[in-house]
Amino acid sequence: MIRVTIPQHLRTLAHVGYEVELDVEGPVTQRSVLDALEARYPMLRGTIRDQVTQQRRPFLRFFACEEDLSHEPSDAPLPDAVASGKEPFIVIGAIAGG
């Protein structure tokens, strides 16, 4: 099981708690985790990444094992601790303003 945390506004939309657990088939990558998340919670489609380009939405960042993975290729393997369920894959809403 892959553990995923999502920001509050997306938790409200999906009617879930702080963390969700997902079964991911094949290699554990950003793409496969987000595919599984969107398959289980279809109301999240288009909120985390663009539906056409599959690019991360502005003001969202991806973290795992204390590393910013936001600019990593979406098909790069996630750390083993995430793949084993020891650590969560974290989607964080960035804050901007001045």
Quick overview:
With 98 residues, the chain is of the alpha+beta class. The protein has three helices and five strands; from the N terminus they run βαβαββαβ.
Can you walk me through this structure?
By secondary structure, the chain is α+β, with helices and mostly antiparallel strands. The protein has one domain (2-93): Ubiquitin-like (UB roll) (Roll), CATH 3.10.20.30. Helix content is 22%, strand content 20%. It contains 3 helices and 5 strands. It has helices at 8-14, 30-40, 80-83, and strands at 2-5, 19-22, 60-64, 67-68, 89-93. The chain has a 5-stranded mixed sheet, covered by helices on one side. Strand 3 and strand 4 form a beta hairpin. The model has no long low-confidence stretch (mean pLDDT 94).
Topology:
Elements: E1 2-5, H1 8-14, E2 19-22, H2 30-40, E3 60-64, E4 67-68, H3 80-83, E5 89-93
Parallel strand pairs: 1-5
Antiparallel strand pairs: 1-2, 3-4, 3-5
What is the total domain count?
Answer: 1
Give the distance, in angstroms, between the N- and C-terminal Cα atoms. 40 Å
Question: How would you name the CATH homologous superfamily?
Answer: Beta-grasp domain
Rg is 12 Å
Given the helix and strand composition, which structural class is it? alpha+beta
Shape: globular
| Number of DSSP helical runs | 3
Biggest sheet: strands, sense, closure?
5 strands, mixed
**Topology as a string of helices (H) and strands (E):** EHEHEEHE
The CATH topology comes to Ubiquitin-like (UB roll)
Q: Tell me the β content.
A: 15-25%
